[in-house]
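User: Can you help me understand a structure? I only have the sequence.
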Amino acid sequence: MTIPDTFQSHAELDEVALRRQINKLIEALCAKDLDGVKRHYTTDVVSFDVEPPLQHVGIAAKLENWARVFLLFETVNYEIRDLTFTVGGDVAFGHAFARLHGTLNNGETTTGMWVRATFGMRKIDHTWLIAHDQASVPFEIHSGRGVVDLEP
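Assistant: Let's start by predicting it. Here is the structure, written out as tokens:
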């Protein structure tokens, strides 16, 4: 028996679904739609974001971060490059480069900074949700300062 070229494995189908979820999250971010953003995270999400504290636990804390962004920006753009996923059953992890940029409420345009982004995903009721995310910047060891002018 020959498998048709259109056949896709479970892992391939999951990767398509994962990418679709991230794209929908980006759409919600660009629309400044907190309810839309919320739909892409687990209720117990743990986030290691670039802002203090070291970790943000739960969907309320994650949404507070995005609400602060939405208050600062008139228009939000969010870009992801080189997104790669590894899938295993009902869990997956992904990594990419991400950049938040746009127009601030004062009219100033910001190009933002590229960060290293990691996503820990869980499939719950047939839907991939972000259970963990991390955004980070490299730092110079001798000064301890973050390096925010790098590009992928």
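Now, to help you interpret it: The two ends are 44 Å apart (CA to CA). The mean pLDDT is 93. Let me know which part you'd like to focus on.
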